[in-house]
Amino acid sequence: MIQSIHIENQCIGALERPFIIAEMSGNHNKSLDRAMEIVRAAALAGASAIKLQTYTADTMTLPEIFKIEDENSLWQGRELYELYQEAATPWEWHKPIFEYARSLGLVAFSSPFDASSVDFLEELGVGAFKIASFENTDLPLLTKIAATRKPVILSTGASTLSELDEAVSTLRTHGCTELILLKCTSTYPASPEQSNLKTIPHLQQLYQCQVGLSDHTMGIGVPIAAIALGATVIEKHFTLNRADGGVDSAFSLEPHELKSLVQESERAFLAMGEIRYGVQVAEQKSVAFKRSVYVVKDIKAGDFFSDENIRVIRPANGLAPRYYQTLLGKRAAIDIKRGTPMTWGLI
User: Fold this and answer.
1) What would the DSSP string read from start to end of 300-320?
2) Residue 234 contacts by C-beta under 8 Å, 6 or more apart in sequence?
3) What is the dihedral of CA 58, 61, 66, 68, to 10 degrees?
4) How does residue 1 score in pLDDT terms, banded at 50, 70 and 90?
């Protein structure tokens, strides 16, 4: 069995309830008070963890070198550097956010986007690192993260299999022994048809590690399906209210939706159970409602049993239906009243 992984006070594994990560991203809308409200709402909804992103616009890109022209993008027309300026979580917020989250029982960690952010998060004592899809080919970054020997959660979006092989090999070669891969479709929002969740058990088999889902679809149906396919971790963007706006609000869950995700994820996990046949303990009383052979008309001793006077009906107090054809044409040993369950002693 693939090993369980401990991050702070939480255990992640096939025998554990799903680990639900609420991704704050830029949904704080540049307000620390709002960021704290998001943390509290995530805890009240039952999430396992809150996750930030640790970068500055200057560690991500350069000004005026790229403008998003895709007309289908949520950020169409935005200049990349300016977008990251808006979305970045100030580094001085990390410590109070992490402390507040942990006081509420949440795991608190982040996605670093360069070497300096790894060092910064190490100083704050994070229990794990998340690697975003667009960074999973940054081998120097992966090498530095692996060297911390902390658990690593890596998103697999926008990657070829050879790139993924290289990422996993780099992490494992340089010290990562606890790895979780997240199936991810890096489009915002994503559609269910683009999710290809059947990849989850294949990823698990291919890399012999835990696998989850970083999900950008609307709603909770896709992550619930992922859990049924073996996902142990679900990551969803989270906001207080999509109507408040924000760079990622359009594909983020609101508190009542996150609560539903937590509840339905647990139900899906519990429903998986084990391979089992036969009557379960919980079903034993229900066996009485199966069918059996009954006398449905008064019968005199010596009369023949026929489809006029015996039938297969509920409950299951008589002979099993498999004996119905055998009974036809046999004679009654005694007078039998209508409503009597058939037994061999009546023949």
Assistant:
1) -TTPBP-TTTEEEESSS-SB-
2) 18, 19, 20, 21, 212, 213, 215, 223, 226, 227, 261, 265
3) -90
4) low
Q: Is the CB of residue 29 less than 8 Å from the CB of residue 240?
A: no
pTM for the model: 0.90
Q: Which pLDDT value is given to residue 71?
A: 72
- DSSP string for 92-135: HHHHHHHHHHHHTT-EEEEEE-SHHHHHHHHHTT-S-EEE-GGG
C-alpha separations of 64 from 70, 78, 185, 215 in Å:
17, 10, 27, 30
DSSP-derived secondary structure letter, 299 = B
| Burial tier of 154 (Cβ tally within 10 Å: 0-12, 13-18, 19+) | buried
Write out pLDDT tens, residues 261-317. Answer: 999 999 999 999 999 999 999 999 999 999 999 999 999 999 999 999 999 999 999
Q: What domains are defined for the chain?
A: 16-272 (3.20.20.70), 281-346 (3.90.1210.10)
320-328 contacts at long range (C-beta below 8 A, 24 or more positions apart) = 320/292, 320/293, 321/291, 321/292, 321/293, 323/293, 324/293, 327/293
Neighbour count for residue 227 (Cβ, 10 Å): 26
Q: Measure the CA–CA gap between 41 and 23, rounded to whole angstroms.
A: 12
- The answer to whether 279 and 329 have CB atoms below 8 angstroms apart is no
- The DSSP symbol for 340 reads P
The per-residue pLDDT for range 98-117, each reduced to its tens digit, is 999 999 999 999 999 999 99
